[in-house]
Write a structure and sequence with these properties.
There is one protein chain. The longest helix has 6 residues, at 88-93. The protein is globular. The strands form two sheets. A five-stranded mixed beta barrel has the order 1-4-5-7-6. A two-stranded antiparallel sheet has the order 2-3. A hairpin with a 6-residue loop joins strand 2 and strand 3 (31-36). It has one helix at 88-93; strands spanning 7-14, 20-24, 31-36, 45-48, 60-63, 74-85, 98-105. By secondary structure, it is mainly β. It has a single domain, classed as Inorganic Pyrophosphatase. It contains one helix and seven strands; from the N terminus they run E-E-E-E-E-E-H-E.
Length: 111
C-alpha cells in the first residue's frame, strides 16, 4: 500500500457484533485460537495482507460496512482513516499506543 494507492486486501478475523476474538497466523492465515473480549466488535475487524506495523505484525483494520462479513473472508478495501488505541500496558512501556485503520470495501456487493 502506498500513499497514492490506499487500496489493499483485508483478511477478516472477527465478525461484527461478536465478542469472540479469533487469532490467525498472519502468514499462512491458519486459525490458532479464540478468546472472549469484553465488548463486541462494532464492525468486521481484521488485518491488511500486504502491510506490516512496527512490531512486524500486519496492520489491523475495521471494515466500515453494513454487510455481514465472515471470518476468513478476503476483500479489497480502501483505507480512509487511522485510530490510535491506548492500552494500560502500552502506555507504561512505549511512547505510542496501538494503531488501527478504518477502511471501506471497494466492491459494490460488499458495501
Amino acid at each position: 500500500m502506498t500513499a497514492s494507492n490506499m487500496q489493499t486486501k483485508v483478511f477478516v478475523r472477527n465478525e461484527a457484533a461478536s465478542n469472540r476474538e479469533k487469532h490467525h497466523d498472519e502468514k499462512t492465515l491458519e486459525y490458532n485460537e479464540t478468546n472472549i473480549v469484553s465488548r463486541a466488535y462494532l464492525y468486521p475487524y481484521g488485518f491488511m495482507l500486504d502491510t506490516n506495523a512496527d512490531d512486524s505484525c500486519k496492520l489491523e483494520v475495521f471494515v466500515i460496512t453494513k454487510r455481514r462479513l465472515t471470518t476468513g473472508q478476503i476483500l479489497e478495501c480502501e483505507a480512509i482513516g487511522v485510530m490510535e488505541q491506548l492500552e494500560d500496558e502500552v502506555q507504561q512501556t512505549t511512547k505510542f499506543g496501538h494503531i488501527s485503520l478504518f477502511a471501506l470495501p471497494i466492491c459494490v456487493s460488499c458495501a
